[in-house]
Amino acid sequence: MSLLGARVHIHGRFRGLTKRRIAQLVTAGGAKMARRATSATLLALGHGSAVSTLSDAGDLNLGFKVPPRAEFVSERRFKAKLGIPFAGAEGVRNYSGLQLERHSGLSAAQLRCLVLYDVLDPVAGSYSYRDLVAARTIGRLVSAGARFGKIAAAALALELHGIDLATARLAESPWGEILQEIGGQSARLDGQLLLPLHGDDLDANEAFARAEASEEDGDLPTARRWYELAARLDRDDAVIPYNLGNVLDALGKSAEAEIAYRQAIGRSPDLADAWFNLGLLQERARRLGEALESYAQAYLVEPTYCDALYNAAALLMRLRRFRDALPLWEKIAATTPDGVVEARRLAHLCRLELAEAAARP
What we know:
The chain is of the alpha/beta class and 361 residues long. Among the domains are: 7-81, 3-Layer(aba) Sandwich (Rossmann fold); 93-187, Multidrug-efflux Transporter Regulator, Chain: A, Domain 2 (Orthogonal Bundle), CATH 1.10.1660. Helices cover 53% and strands 9% of the residues. The chain has a four-stranded parallel beta sheet. It has a three-stranded antiparallel beta sheet with strand order 7-8-9. Strands 5-6 form a two-stranded antiparallel ribbon. Helix 13 runs antiparallel to helix 14 (306-318). The N and C termini lie far apart (65 Å). Residues 191-200 have low confidence and may be disordered.
């Protein structure tokens, strides 16, 4: 499955990647983002959509009609196509799909969905012993009445905490949440022992999805509340506080937005978008030195981040630091076809200013 020439639609949440970064990597890979899901030729399934998308029978409830001849790809394998590698599970793969069906009680459709959500990791249609044990665990939970999508989401959540589904002891709670057993006590999937009172089983993925929907509808106060909840439920993914920062900024709460962007950076110092938006806040607040540092961090971790390069170069020119601005304009001219004319013009202005300064007595 080649990315070249594909029209890509992302379904669900991708951990650690902003929408801008995904679109940039897709373009760099010779593909483009589909304007509508129904026009896509490649559908990438984000892990965050497991609960809402997977039916108990192993169907994909996407909320739209799948385009003819469209191909599906899992989040991890799609990221690999974008140049973000992942370490596949080790072990010899000598079990067929039919063997997994027979030993787990799962259908071929259910196994396919588990592969599309990276719960199982076959190579050329062959599965490992780890896959077999995981499939049997899932089959047991399905037979006990647990929801298939929740089981898949539980497996992915366990993996984030370094726990393999094949070795975990899982069960369904009376209110429908998938729990693990630790030392004879029930615990949530992050290892936290349950308190005497239980709420619902809303997870970070659902809260994030509701936040995005509210943001797209323009209901920013509601989006803020959902992002804040998602950030409490998932304390690792930097994109959640980054999105929260965007909403807070749009609400005119600059100080709180800065805190959110710094939280995102604390979670992932390589999140260039958070550095860039932090720089925008600082520039608006006339903290120009800090803004330059934030823009510099953005293009340091992502050297082709042209918006950060442009803002830094423009700010340096306003500060009459033409010697510092010149190499940034030259870099933009060399790497950005759409902005090459403007970048060359501004680089020329920097040279004129430098030449005039050198000619002064």
